[in-house]
């Protein structure tokens, strides 16, 4: 009994000691950067606020969004972030939208995302892959293979996947900027809910 | 009306003066009328081109269907008879239609434009038919009936197809009925990443791609009625644009484009052209004014005795002013009429010369407003410009008759300034009107005023230095060179006359020499430099690990890799420790201030360059101390900013900027502002750091590949896509060529106008020099009577003319550099080239012309009987 109690005590202590405060890297493109809006209203800032509320002031969400970035930039940008003294615990991988908009090969995008995930895994960082859909005007074949690529990566790499990062935002004029593509601050508030729903289980 | 009759008699009695005067006025005003006509026709030609780019006069578009209320709202603004058309635009993966269904054919991204049969309202899409021959089919009408498409040649290459075969866009197959050869609507502002396909608008729905969530541009285009005469209705077009934009103001997703805004990238070229032509027209008029004033002054000098006689027999003192005033009005009017006639004769030839460059449809016609202005300027402007000369007649009395020299009375500076005020106001008004800015008016007045002051100062210096110089020659040569000594002595003694000649010639030289300099500056700005390779392809999103392989890839194909510039995304956090990241909605102050703050708050693409490239020019500050940042020697890294970016953000030299590069703070000090050569078409950046500052930051590279032929470009694009699949390739050759072509047309028009202004200037100068030579003929006669030899008189007269012409021409030349520099800084965005040869040639021409005319006039005078000369002058 004494042994069991001491084991339980040890497990409690160790889990508390090793349950790191979440430091979430939002590695993405203009959707992450907060294109044409204040950085305070983009989803990484909103997520940061929520993390701090939940896990205390040391919890953090880092905005590593670069407008126009494609999946090809994923590996090198993640490596750069790994040089930071901050101990990353999670990465929200929100790349690929620009690959789709430029009609780049889906297979190449898949490989780039997989390479990025591998680097994250090697550094014991949990990955949340933000799925993306391409507008139907790109053609049914391309749009379908593009969307499926994320699901496939999730299955193959065993990582959590948000089915569609812009769920409830895309094609809603009141939630997007005049370009009809980028979310406005209201849209980002919906995005953070979508992310939280998928991120919370892996925190 | 006795004064008018006397004035007329005076004109008839002094035919030489009258002829010179009319010639002088006519030349200046001819320059003005011709420049105005050309300016109008170039505007018209470029305006036509801008309509072709938009394909309409005005268009409204959104990434959604326009509502019926919006359509009705816009339609209510356009006049009756306006044609409308609609269009859908989107990008899609397009594949060839193949019989084998097991393996899906490769698909490529294409830009689809689904248009109405009336497309385009302006311009023409040239294409070849299925047989590969140029076609004049009404292809856009055919598209309404059949599922046919017109495609860019790149599509055939990328999908390995031939005309007559089919492509599938969404669910619908389209037969490729032709290949685009030239498409004026290919905007040079937005480079497309995909080749274009035209289909009929009514077939767009059949593709199944227009559905909820699709990113489709819905556009409604308008072609206003009576377009050929529309240039005169420019204001109504602008009013319409304002109404459209006001209506769209509350709907932020609506975009209104007029044909002028469709060519924003040409706006700078057009502004340059407008400003330049305005300046040249103004210089022509000022030259004419200077020449006119000189001739009047010289004429008044010769007429003092006659006017004094008139006064002594009972005429009032104002009589002289009335006679000369009427004389100037009649001569000025005559000059203006001659100018209109000469311009009418010249313009067809100018049209012929420029037609190959500006298009055969170009019409160079005399503008009504320029004719009216020329007539007003000639008739009323001439006596107004001569007001300072009238002051010389003040205080004139019968006693003047008994003076040995009938010099006009000396005038007080204040009186002269007051008399010069009306003509100053005219110059200001004309300059403001021509350059469309009061700033230009003030600038021109300041330039002219400063030039006159410098010339007057130089004239005084010249006068003072002639004495010691004479003594030096006398010491060295004795009396052997007495004609030269006489020339020097006479020049020194001629005082006021010399000053007037010197200032007049110098000002002419300054203005004339400035024209080709500005022309050289603008031509160098508008045409590409030999130092930079014109790009054919732009390559985006090159990853750091791809930099070396890509260079190798291009070098292995003997292709110029142009430049590979690192591109680092960063947000400007602080300027001199002041936070710039205010939330946009909470920015207090004016709209301009909000815009400015928003500009500061935005994220920028930085780059790293240790030295300025061939497409950049240092505008202020200094180059980086070292190419690479050295923390042991420098306290803070150095930053270079693009000049206009710095002006918009009000960042100054010496300011400390703090950027956030992916969460890492990087500080730097602004050490220089640089101007980017617009026509280089090279990748350039607002903000550039020294090397070694942000080496580790995530970056992509932006690259260019030099222009090649179509086949090579297509092959290269295919190979690049295979080896570097993520790299986006944009073919910019057509757009670069289009912009260069228009820029070259503008450069040509500028050169033509420079030559025209030079000719007009030389004409005015000829009139002035002839008048000077005429004035010297009296002295020539005296010397002959006193027994001087032909050679001695000749050397003396020529020596005097050479002294004045040489110093005036080269002082004017020095001033012209200042004029060109000031105009380049204040009007032409700081573009500056030290065009020595362009300026020296006119100065040499002025000097040579003056000597030739003096020589010719002196020979005539020397060949004439002294008695006749003395009689003609008395």
- In the CATH hierarchy, what is the class of chain A? Alpha Beta
Tally the helices of chain A: 8
Strand order of the largest sheet of chain A: 2-1-3-4-5
The general outline of chain A is: globular
Which radius of gyration of chain A do the C-alpha atoms yield?
A: 18 Å
Which features would summarize this protein structure in a list?
heterodimer; A: 203 residues; alpha/beta; five-stranded parallel β-sheet; 8 helices; B: 874 residues; alpha+beta; six-stranded mixed beta barrel; 22 strands; elongated
Explain what you see.
The complex is a heterodimer of chains A (203) and B (874). In chain A, helix 3 packs across helix 8 and helix 4 packs parallel to helix 6. A 5-stranded parallel beta sheet of chain A has the order 2-1-3-4-5, sandwiched between helices. The longest helix of chain A is centred in the C-terminal third of the chain and has 18 residues, at 140-157. Chain A has one domain (21-202): Rossmann fold. With 203 residues, chain A is an alpha/beta fold. In chain A, strand 4, helix 7 (140-157) and strand 5 (160-162) form a beta-alpha-beta unit. Chain A contains 8 helices and 5 strands, in the order αβααβαβααβαβα. With 874 residues, chain B is an alpha+beta fold. Chain B folds into 3 domains: 2-46 and 267-527 and 740-873, no CATH class; 55-266, no CATH class; 535-706, no CATH class. Chain B has 22 helices and 22 strands. A 6-stranded mixed β-barrel of chain B has the order 2-3-9-6-8-7. In chain B, a hairpin with a 2-residue loop joins strand 13 and strand 14. In chain B, helix 7 (264-312) packs antiparallel against helix 11, helix 8 packs antiparallel against helix 9 and helix 13 packs across helix 20. The longest helix of chain B is centred in the C-terminal third of the chain and has 53 residues, at 733-785. Chain B is elongated and about 115 Å long. The model of chain B is unreliable at 228-233 and 582-598 (pLDDT under 50). Chains A and B meet through strand 2, helix 4 and helix 7 of A and strand 2 and strand 3 of B.
